[in-house]
Amino acid sequence: MIRVMGITHDHKVETEIPLEAIGDSKYGWSWVDFNAPSAEEAEKLDSFFHFHPLAIEDCLHILQRPKVDYYEDYQFLVLHALDPESLGTVEVNLFIGPKYLVSFHHQRLKEIDEAWDSLAIRAQNRKTWARGSFAAAYMVIDALVDQYFPCVYAVEDELDELEKRGSRESVELLMNQVFDLRSRLLKLRRTIVPMRDLMYRILNSQHIQGEKEPRAYFADIYDHLLKLGEMIESDREMTADLRDSYISLNSNRMNGIMKTLTVITTVFMPLTLIAGIYGMNFVHMPELHWRYGYFAVLGIMVLLSVWMILAFLKRGWFK
To answer: Transmembrane residues, as ranges (predicted)?
Structure first.
């Protein structure tokens, strides 16, 4: 589907206008949104707008890394939206020209819809109209970045909950949850860090160097991405600390189990020796014919066991 919004010179917003109408002199600038377009509609990127073949190829062949390319009379941006459920990325392409913004995405995104509705309201403001296509581009990018925050906050909430209930669950289950959180943080990092680098490149580009107001808005987005990056790094460090703590706890429990088994084995070693000696079938063993030999050997084994346990207690083996 292709939808078109035209902003007239007297700040009126017109929607559902034909694509061919954006060249009308009554429009100051326009926004054309390719929302999950068909192959025939996607072909308009070439036949109507005459964009560069490499830029069109990047639109049609997903998934590209976030980037910005500068052409003679427009700029081409590759952006990433986040799926809150899977944390997978959805590519959003923007063509920013002096009198138009063209957005292209293969599936419907609520961030684009929010930016579309917001621009339809705010475009009546003279300052917003003066910024033209940069205003629409900012709203799209800002909406995409704002969607990152709930995803990061959700991981942080799970991390806090995991830290609180850490002593009540098995180490194996906790470790699985920690590694799952680290995997999700890695997905977020792969999306947010390239977007942060893209914003840095845009801010330091000569193409908007002289435009103070657009730079201020894009700098605000860059600050948001810096904050998100710091949150992700902090959460990754916390998961690493939790992982190390659980590994140490598990090792300590294993050491306790091994110590207990070692004590039991050590206590039974001399008893096994005595039982083995008197279990031999030699004929000339005087103790076998002694009337009280059985009870005497049992008594010796009991006394030996008690003496060894007391010795271990004195050495602190049971602490």
So the answer is: 261-280, 292-313
Phi and psi at residue 55, in whole multiples of 5°? -65, -40
Residue 111, helix vs strand vs coil: helix
- The strand ranges marked E within 16-172 are 27-35, 67-70, 75-82, 89-96, 100-105
Greatest mean pLDDT among 58-67, 180-189, 289-298: 180-189
Q: Any idea where the domains of the chain sit in the sequence?
A: 1-120, 256-314
Question: Rounded distance, CA 63 to CA 53, Å?
Answer: 17
pLDDT at residue 310 tops 70: yes
> Which residue blocks in 69-146 are alpha helix, DSSP H?
110-122, 126-131, 133-146
Measure the CA–CA gap between 295 and 34, rounded to whole angstroms.
Answer: 95
> 256-314 — its CATH code?
1.20.58.340
**Structure token pair of residue 15:** 């929607």
Give the class (CATH, top level) of 1-120: alpha beta
